[in-house]
Write a structure and sequence with these properties.
InterPro entries: DUF6328. Pfam families: DUF6328. The structure is a single chain. The protein is an all-alpha fold and about 50 residues long. The protein has a domain of about 30 residues. It has two helices and no strands.
């Protein structure tokens, strides 16, 4: 088992959290799109946007 110093523990946690946020930011639009297209909300979205 490797013990990290306090700085490297903090760096690891920050890197891990930022990676998790990046994955969420990249996958959220796909999930949002699937929810609205599966429920046939596309015409209402187009009317609201236009």
């Amino acid at each position: 088992m490797v013990l990290l110093g306090r700085f490297y523990q903090g760096l690891y946690i920050v890197t891990f959290v930022l990676g998790a946020l990046a994955v969420g930011a990249l996958t959220a639009p796909v999930a949002y799109h699937r929810v609205f297209t599966e429920h046939r909300f596309k015409p209402q979205l187009i009317d609201a946007a236009g």
